[in-house]
Each structure stands twice: as C-alpha cells, then as structure tokens.
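Much of our argument rests on the idea that a fold can be written as discrete symbols. Part of our work consisted of pairing the sequence of a single chain with a tokenised description of its backbone. We regard such an encoding as a compact summary of how the chain folds. The amino acid sequence and the backbone structure tokens for this protein are reproduced below.
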Amino acid sequence: ALPICEERPGGMLRYGIPEFRLPRALLDTEVHNALRLGVQLRTGVEVGNEPGQVRVSQLLADYDAVLLATGCMAATPLPLRGEWQERDPREVPGVEHGLDFLVAMHRGEIKTVGRRVAVIGAGFTALDCARVAVRLGGKEVTIHIRTAEEYIPVTQEEIFEAKREGVRIKGLRSPMQLVLDGEGKVAGVEFAQNRLGGWRESGRRIAIPIEDSEFVEPCDTVIIAVGQQTVHDFSDTALQLDRWKNARLGDNGMTSQPGVFAAGDYVSGASTVVQSVGHGRKIARRIDAWLLGRERRRETVRIEPVARPLRERGDDFIARQPM
C-alpha cells in the first residue's frame, strides 16, 4: 500500500507545486484559516492496509463520514517500445518521473540534474520540472511534446515564464526508447518525428508518428512528466470506479460505500488547484446535508426589475488590476 504520511498539511500544493509558483506563505495562511474554524489536524498518519497503518474501514467505524481526497498519487508511465515495454525507465540512472522528482525535493531530498535535461510531457508538471531543473543548474533544459506549442494545455503565462528562464520547447515528437551509454546511464532519448492529425474527443490534437523518422536527442537527465493517475491500494474498502479508474460518485457526493465521500483529483483525475478546491466546497455541503438529513442552505436566483443599467460609464475607465 502507498502510505499517506506527510508531516505538513497542504498535499500536492506543498509537495507537488514549486514555491516559485505557489508561495508557501500563502499556503500556510490558507491552511491556518481552515484550522482556526475548529478542524483537528493529525499529520504523519499512514493510511493503508499494512501493520501500523490506519485502515479506511477503521476510519469509517470511528467517524460518521469519511472523505477521500488523495488526488492522483501515481505518475503515468511513459509508453515506449522494444525492451522498454517491459523495463521500468526509472531503473536507469538519470531518469525520474516528474511527480516523484518534485515530491522528493519538497520533502527535503537533495536533487541534482545533468547539464542537458530532457523533460517529456506537456502539462503544468512538465513546465514545473523544467523550471526547477534550471534552478538546479541545468544548462540546456528542453521540453519535448507530441504536438505543437499552441496545443499545450497550460496558460500562456506559464510558457512565457519558462522561456524567459531559458527553457526550450520542442514539438512534434514521440519518445520511442531511451539511449544508454557504456556505463548504463541515460545518454539520450530516441524520438520519432510526428505530423498533426485530427482532433480527439477531448479537444486535443492527434499526433501521428512518421515512419522511419527516428532521431536521437542527447541528454544527461530525463524527467518523465506525462501525467498522474489515481491509486486505490491504500484503501481496504472497494469502491466503484469510472472508466478512467477514478472514484465514481452519486448525486449526493458519496461513493458506492455508504458514508465514504470523495473530492478533487481522486474523482476528476488530474486537474487544477482551483477546480479541486471548488469541488471540495461542493462535496463539503453534500456531506453536511447527509449528516443533517436536510440541506442547511439552498442557493436560489432572484430576479428583480431595474429602472436603468447598473453599470456606470466611469467603470470603463478603471484600470485593470493585476492578481
């Protein structure tokens, strides 16, 4: 089982997102605001099925409701060909998964990178890893993506900040296999050149590898950041899952196990902090209604006539305020 036993609160916000993107003073303030409402916090608790760990079934016996908000704790493996279909790339010195790389660093582990760093992936984690690699001394840090830069599912500001720090983005390439040196360390990545195809149902472009277009990109460090996924081996309570292996919820926010609720990325898959916080607020109200047997508060819309538009002409001249 995967233990959940961090010593400080914040989860992925503290251990997955770099401080230059989420200042820890802001996070500490948000955590403090939650705790001062009367929440009791217990850190360093391992939830799992092994001796010495707390089982989910025991929590369910001790409390009226249990909320699972464990997010996406496992890095998505990189699909490669040849021997790498059966071999874990992380066995090779110089190769890491982006999520593991960031979490270990935020736990206090000393991380190092080589001179040439290749980050494979196109999301926020990939950009975070690349910018961290620059701060750790990487001289040639590149992000390799399957499609083109305009289809990366991150904000333009994130891309601009990464480029400003020296990160290069190389598109239209799919990783095929790792290249090792005589000592068994990573020496490069073999890619296939892609061309753009149609559109997926998700709204993203399809990348089609071009036959006999393979080439090698030399590097000293490879960071694989192609996504995260949920894991369920920490729980001894079987839950119904959807086709993406995320927890399936009913209309009341409850899982298939009575009394067990779920929120955030554990339900939606990898998303953003804002989406997860919003979903957490929604599920909190569902739990409250289930415990009370009624809705404590119901949102309604009231429509009232107005004599004239409420917007003043002077509003147009108010300067936009930075966040």
